[in-house]
## 1
Amino acid sequence: MLAWLHRFPNRPAGVGTLAWVDGSRSAQTDLRGREALRGAETVPPLQPPGIPHGKLVWTIDLPVGSEPGHYDVELQQPRGNTVTRASGTANLVNGLTLLKIRIDTRAVQPGAASLRIHPPSRSCSRYPVKVKRALSS
């Protein structure tokens, strides 16, 4: 299978998007450091992670303490309507809980969105994200 790596100038080294001949791209989002806080803990707000626009094979680094297992994932627009969803199995890899899914984000409008991740037998976690504009061909 053919693939190429496109590096974006504003991304840190080692972060890129692979484009596959079937039209899907590989993307990764790191949610570590975005764990739910307890008590009086405070953390400076983090920039929402960027989500590529398109057909994705998406790996999500789940927050520290996330359990392996089945997860449902939804992307919602600011008004709360679910635009796309997928599910997959998270696995423990080198101490990280990684969730890999196939999802199509082309129907999600670029800009602010909400990523909802629903782990097995637990309440849903919500993360602000920013859907990027589609790359022009």
Note: The chain has one domain: 23-131.
## 2
Amino acid sequence: MDLASLIGLLLALILVIGGIVVGGEPGAFINFPSLLVTVGGTFGATIMSNPMERIRGVGRVLKRAFINESPDLIGLVQTLVSFAEKARREGLLALEDDTSELDDEFLRKSIQLVVDGTDPELVKGILDTEIGLLEERHSASKQMFDTMAELAPAFGMLGTLIGLIQMLRNLSDPDALGPGMAVALITTFYGSFMANVFCIPISRKLSVRSSEEVLSRELMVEGVLAIQAGENPRIVEEKLKVFLPPQLRDVLDEEKKRGDGVEG
């Protein structure tokens, strides 16, 4: 579970709803016809804007935003350095038995290409193409929430216009103008709430998830090509540490020192 996503969503809901309750008359913010226009219109237009297979996959996309964890970059560096050490001692073919134990399909495929003796340029071309296609798939999934973020305020304004038209038909009753204006504006509130509390944050989190996965795969490509070139494991480690933020580099160095101490 991604605590940042869960805590952020709950905090936004609690603070916004709390502000409504503290301000008095929370029932004034509940209007079923306005919900139909804003939420129903947004979902309907979003479904119209995307192919049905993408709509069916919305559950998996939400799972990536709320459940998926960041890649273990430190563990990945350690795995690739250990492969470099083994390949240096026993040759590339010795890595074939290790591929079946890898959970990551991309890394498993990368190592298998190297073990099979594929030309380095071809290995890089295949893996780079796969990373590019991954980015396209992630962008398509994120686009659904970008579409909802654009449409929700627009349908909120549409609902407001509908409410104003209905209100202006009753200008002969001055006492009804205030409540009528309030109901007309509720749809704008619903649209803004839906876009800013739900759609935009999820879209941004999906962008972060995509960047993290692309970074981890670029790290794998760099490591695999270095292993194929027969580079010294220390050089491989230094190359891969470039992909880590400074705090993770420090953690990796500390774990390496502890490991060296245990071996000593």
Note: The mean pLDDT is 88.
